[in-house]
TrEMBL record:
Phylogenetic placement of the source organism: Bacteria, Pseudomonadati, Pseudomonadota, Alphaproteobacteria, Sphingomonadales
Enoyl reductase (ER) domain ranges (all copies): 14-331
GO terms of molecular function: oxidoreductase activity, acting on the CH-CH group of donors, NAD or NADP as acceptor
Keyword match Oxidoreductase: yes
InterPro entries according to UniProt: ADH-like_C, ADH_N_2, ER, GroES-like_sf, MDR_fam, NAD(P)-bd_dom_sf
Superkingdom per UniProt: Bacteria
Cross-referenced PANTHER family: PROSTAGLANDIN REDUCTASE, PROSTAGLANDIN REDUCTASE 1
Gene3D superfamilies named in the record: Medium-chain alcohol dehydrogenases, catalytic domain, NAD(P)-binding Rossmann-like Domain
Keywords, comma-separated and alphabetical: Oxidoreductase
Signal peptide (from-to): none
Protein name: NADP-dependent oxidoreductase
Coiled-coil stretches: none
Organism: Novosphingobium endophyticum
Length: 334
């Protein structure tokens, strides 16, 4: 059982020495529990936060434990009446070949007959797809004709938010890093406008957003934070709703930058909503059905960036922070 352990808390950007790949015995199921053979693991920006020893919505990953991750896999051995060997499941496990799941842990059966690849349960039908769905439709509640401004727009969450925004009848403007990603926003995901943030200061970025969203943004879907968010706040429409979904530009910096133009929220009487997908856990089935329907109808496209091998976990994970990932980043374990 190869396991990708967190052995040191990263300071700033993680380095390879913060982790260790070890091999251990394949575990046996605990009383009423199961052992899952992981096939795919989700690599998420949130994992960077779980590596810090800081209070958050989840406890930090203990040093010496494998890096916590949502996985999909097959039940390898079971002492549970609810799970049979061979059954496909998804759950909150770790970057390792085999994970132990105890009763009451988050493990649920999945129907891989409904999807092109089991990894789809980590993308369109997983937390990122549902984050886009509930974060936009339930939290921001966009109205037809409104303008939605999305940062991290070419990523897994952002690209889905933009497409759902179009389904909701909105004008959709995306901010992403580089010409190629901006091309994909328009051509692959149907955004109305795309802005490359790389190498631009706040004034230039704010002006470009203003051109793409002349009346201002009614909804801001924030994945990035920092200067990108400051440029967005200069372009709030009156009574705008800002969904604070992620602040990836700050995850690797010890010093948090903060937002220096919060007064814009005041003058525009805007609302900032902190969003956490876990709050919608009891509605995952409903959101998943809708996402699956849109996928089947060809209204939604979710790209996956599948990297191969537990031994490449570090390099794969760092793609999120260099912007190398194209679509939902997934690690194929077996
Ligand atoms: P993505 O697929 O969007 O990958 C991350 C992207 O972030 C990169 O490709 C890169 O795109 C961009 N990025 C990385 N570093 C920076 C930086 N310093 N400045 C600007 N952009 C940067 O990941 P996800 O879709 O999985 O996650 C997107 C966001 O959603 C994250 O902030 C994540 O924490 C959040 N999230 C929140 C959830 C919640 O419940 N609140 C649930 C799931 C995700 P580019 O090339 O454009 O720079």
């Amino acid at each position: 059982n190869r396991r990708f352990l967190l052995v040191r808390r990263p300071e700033g950007a993680p380095v390879p020495e913060d982790f260790a790949l070890v091999a251990e015995q394949i575990p046996s199921p605990p009383p009423s529990g199961i052992v899952v053979r992981n096939r795919y693991a989700s690599l998420d920006p949130a994992q960077r936060g779980w590596m810090d020893d800081a209070p958050s919505y989840m406890p930090p990953i203990p040093l010496g434990d494998p890096v916590r991750a949502t996985t999909v896999g097959v039940v390898h051995a079971s002492d549970s009446p609810d799970f049979a060997p061979g059954q496909w499941v998804m759950g909150l496990n770790a970057l390792e070949d085999y994970s132990v799941s105890i009763p009451g842990g988050f493990t649920m059966p999945i129907d891989i007959g409904l999807v092109a690849s089991p990894s789809n349960y980590l993308s369109a039908l997983g937390a990122v797809g549902l984050t886009a769905y509930f974060g936009l439709l339930e939290t921001a509640r966009p109205q037809p004709g409104e303008t939605i401004l999305i940062s991290g727009a070419a990523g897994a969450v952002g690209s889905a938010v933009g497409q759902i925004g179009k389904i909701a009848g909105c004008r959709v403007v995306g901010i992403a890093g580089g010409e190629e990603k901006c091309r994909r926003l328009i051509e692959d995901y149907g955004f109305d406008a795309a802005i490359d943030y790389k190498g631009k200061d706040i004034e230039v970025l704010a002006a470009e957003i203003g051109e793409a969203a002349p009346g201002g943004a009614n909804v801001v879907f924030e994945n990035v934070g920092g200067t990108v968010m400051e440029a967005e706040l200069f372009n709030l429409a009156l009574h705008a709703r800002v969904v604070l979904c992620g602040l990836i530009s700050e995850y690797n910096s010890a010093e948090k930058v903060g937002i220096r133009n919060l007064w814009k929220v005041l003058t525009q009487r805007a609302t900032i909503h902190g969003f956490l997908i876990a709050d919608f856990a009891d509605r995952f089935a409903e959101g998943g059905q809708k996402m699956a329907q849109w996928l089947a109808e060809g209204k939604l496209r979710m790209d996956e960036d599948v990297q191969d091998g537990l031994e490449n976990a570090y390099d794969a994970f760092m793609r999120l922070f260099s912007g190398a990932n194209t679509g939902k980043l997934v690690l194929k374990i077996a």
